[in-house]
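Q: Got a minute? One more chain.
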Amino acid sequence: MKLIKKTKRRLLLASPVAAALTATMFWALAQPAPQPLASLFPAGALLYLEAKDLGALLADWNGSAEKRDWLSSANYEAFSRSTLFLKLGDAQSQFATAAGVPPDYALLSSIAGSNSAAAMYDIGKLEFLYIARIASARAMSTSLWMTRGTYQTRHAGNSDYFIKEDKTLHRVAAFAYTGDSLLLATKEDLIAGALQLMARDTVPSVASEPWFTDSVQAAGAGPIPNSQGDVRLVYNMARLAGAYQFRSHWVQANVPELRQFSSGVADLERTRGEIRERRVLLRATPVEIDGSNESATGQLLAAIPDDAGLYRAWLHPAAGQAEQFIEENLFPPSIATAAPRSKSAPMVAETAEAGNEIDLESRIDQRPITDNRDAMKPLRDRLAAAKIDAMLDISSTSVDRDQVFVRPHFVIALLAGAPWDADAIRADLGSAAEGVWSNSATATWRTGANGVRELEGLGKLAMAADGKWLVIGDSAEMVNTVFARRNRAAVAGASYAAGWRHARELPNFERMTKLIDFPQMPVTASAEPIPGGEPPFFSGNIASLGRTLKRIDAATIVVHDTGAMLRESVVYRLNP
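A: Always. Here it is, folded:
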């Protein structure tokens, strides 16, 4: 009997607890799922950027050696004088005037939430919308929230927002906080539209636009917010390519090549020792390509030397591309590049009289070295007629034994659909070199190790051929290294693949460019900017950027082309 009473008493005590837990569970299930951030941005954006944890990324950057090194570098010195930097500085000052708070690191760190996103709507006017998931206590302590008394209060959706406009500067600052989200915009329509979307009004959003949905669908499962990824960038390439500011300031300067794409997405993921980036670019009009079998590039990639500084491999290169690379890398500019066409009328100049002292260096007893711009035609025609399945371009630098000069070396490997005529290729190369490196009417080749042939003359040229393999370079050692690996098992192929060994090549790059810019300067000295002057572009500006990124050991990119889209995988391997 006592046992029954104790059991009843326990049940009576447990019932309220169970009821509360049950009620809490049903209440949680009844709450609507958090809206994806992309669905809260009004339609019409040029690009959309979302971070899984912006606050953590910002803290990592602020405490990094890369930030410290970059701010003290010649690269930053040059950038701080650029037109783009000055324009951004003016925009920052104007926003500070309109908002009443400076848009500095203190403000950014205070509003950087966990899951955060920003969308750019107009590059020229810097019209953007920013939304971040932030706890209410933190949002209420920001300098932006504390100045809300100086703003006008307006309403959209189910929430109030605060807006201030400087009509003289034509700048707008608007912000709001609702639920667990902080919103900041430079245009009233954007923040009002976002609040309407939060209220689940029927308003078009970025997430409903084809350029966004098609890109995200093609990329597959995205990194935001439940996977291991850190950042996602989705962009409307069709509209970006039409923006004057993008065309003017895009550092790659390849906007004409980008016009074939309608949109794209890039996902960034940080792992131990690596930073990985996955990209997808959608073509506006799909093209037919013969890219189903990428094994040819896989064979060439397996032949890359371990100490190669830079390599690039193409599947089915365009006709003439191989010949152009051979001209530019292995022959003097005098025959490799035609003189630029001038749009101005020639200047009238007085000619020297016969027998003038300026003619004393001209030899009359030897055939002159000619500048024959058609010297490459036989090789050009032969390569154009060949069916080249894949091409590999390799370059490296090395310091001479005297530890003064740095010499670059180039090798090009071609894999054809049919065996090469080695004798004909040697004859074509010799014809191109004739009159440039030697006055001899017949080029002479001597046989080196492993069947590698070297052209005798002032210039250095080596080649080796075996069946469908053809390797040409300016270093017999490099040609031999690549040629000796031709029978290795193929690796995974690609439409395009490239790699850059940053840690290996940076010291040689600095040494070589310093000798060019400052022949009297010790190669160990740093080419810092002259006080009040512009830093040397290569030995100062670019070299300092390379030193800033010294934690990167190497970078690789692999591209697969389906005709409708490009899939790119970029890996930055970091030093320990």
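A: The chain has four domains: 44-206, 209-253+262-273, 295-334+372-494, 501-574.
Q: Perfect, thanks.
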